[in-house]
Amino acid sequence: GLCPERDFKVECGGFSNRPVYSLKCVPDTSLLVTSGPPDSSLQVWQVSAEDSDVIKSVSAIPTENGTGQPWAKIATISARAPWVLHGSRLDSVQITEVESRKNIYVAASRSSEELSGLAFLDCNTLLLCCAKGQLCLADVRQPQSPLEAVSVPS
Questions:
Q1: What is the DSSP string of 93-111?
Q2: How many CB atoms lie within 10 A of CB 7?
Q3: Which of 39, 56, 96, 148 is close enough to 66 for a disulfide, judged by CB 3.0 to 4.6 Å?
Q4: d(Cα 57, Cα 37) in Å, to the nearest integer?
């Protein structure tokens, strides 16, 4: 992972003109993805070569219903290509290819439950955690199948 002082240091101002609530490295690339207010869009950044410590903006990944939504939770993976899993609510979870911004997967859910976290378990399986504690699993290979609630032993 990234370590302050070793991998980056803020000397003046920082690299983003908006708050960063979540920052993830995209494995096997020099890309970073951030999310934070005022909406649920994502920002993609590139860390310059070893001889420079510059982080520059590459692109933004807009999300549906971006305004008024809580900031997006994010997870990254480099399986077939660099992907970012993102969403602020259960019905807004999707996977986007980072470099092309192509939509790879959209979760099928009627619930607008707010997310507290999400993760790739592997390149095909997603774990989503709702703010009220419900866990859901999703299979990327079955995009139209509804999200399955996972029973948690008590």
A1: -EEEETTT--EEEE-B---
A2: 11
A3: 39
A4: 17
Reading the block at residue 72, the tokens are 């997006």
Q: pLDDT tens digits for 79-91?
A: 778 999 999 988 8
Q: What is the pLDDT of residues 94-137, one digit of tens each?
A: 999 998 999 998 888 888 889 999 999 999 999 999 988 888 88
Residues listed for the chain? 154
> In angstroms, rounded to a whole number, what is the distance separating the alpha carbons of residues 132 and 78?
30
Dist. CA 20–CA 37, nearest whole Å: 8
Q: Which helix (H) or strand (E) holds 118?
A: strand 115-120
Burial of 129 by CB count in 10 Å (0-12 exposed, 13-18 middle, 19+ buried)? middle
* Burial of 70 per CB tally in 10 Å (0-12, 13-18, 19+): middle
Extract the tokens encoding 85.
């899993």
